[in-house]
Protein 1
Amino acid sequence: MNLSAPTQIVFIISLVIAIIGLLAALGLLAFIPLASVWIMLIAYAVLAGGCLMRGA
């Protein structure tokens, strides 16, 4: 399996999602109905998808 580095936009999107998950874990974003663990998992999946797909 060949992995490639994610583009800068994919990295920034996953970073923003991870920061939202961190803020939800700290209780600052109580209006988000998902648990912070799932939000962080989505951020990791976006980053992993960016590494697996070429040209993403």
Protein 2
Amino acid sequence: MNIEEAVTAATAGSGALLSCLGQPVVAYHVTVILRETDKRHARQMQLALLRRSIEALVDEGLEEIEAERCASQFHGRVGSAWDLLHVAGDTSH
């Protein structure tokens, strides 16, 4: 899997989030997370994006529970894409 495929996989099905934050903004943040080789740092950045995503979705009118559900699904896809992209077996992750 290359970085472009990983970003596409991570953002698939995130229409509400892409709409309120903007596709270029989301793609940029996801790309930065996916390029991070340190797993702990990548997860910290991912959690920060999760919080911002929930806030943005609530600001757009979603109820908090629904915003958390959408953002959590997105969070899971980003984590899975990171794992797939960095499966080289390097123990430094």
Protein 3
Amino acid sequence: MEPLVKFVQDEFVEKKEFPEFAAGDTITVYYEIKEGEKKRTQFFRGVVIQRRGTGTSETFTIRKMSGTVGVERIFPVNMPALQKIEINKRGKVRRARIFYFRGLTGKKARIKEIRK
């Protein structure tokens, strides 16, 4: 049954082209919000904590600080409302899922930047 599901996902689900990013990167995600009859674009800028899943079920989690409160949001990669993803900084981390980042504050919460 697994190959059949994979075939249907590859054939019928349209994939959007986004830049490659990983945990530790600071990105800005632009997505569309529908409020009644109106549509507007909103952005969410933060550090990627994890990417998980494959194919159409792939998701990524972004964390940002809003004042003193940490806000996390999970985005599916194939969400129709996603418009574009911008990479602001590439971060150097040793792990694929940086959940320890949630407990860090102040100077400890900085991620070293990879310069190209």
Protein 4
Amino acid sequence: MNHDQNLFVQAEMRALLDDLPAELVVRHPVQFLMHLDHIRQRATQHHLTALHDLSCALETALQPAIKNGGATTVVRFYLEAMRATLDCEEISPAMTEALMANVALRLGGQP
């Protein structure tokens, strides 16, 4: 991907992430999940594997977080990590795992 195209993709994905407020998960969980799925689809189209993987991990983490409380906090940490993936040119699978481990550590759990 050339530099200009990369900047366009980053701007598009940032806008999608910015349009997903963490509080939406509590107020309208289905709408939140639909928006998250759209982000995952666009990440796949743009070959942003780390962003895709983090969106999948967020979806997996949501069910217990909604049930036990704290879903907004979980979403905030994941969205922050998802935004961080856009700051890098290429992210290896090991870097993706490190981002997910960082989120898990911040949430007080195990990666």
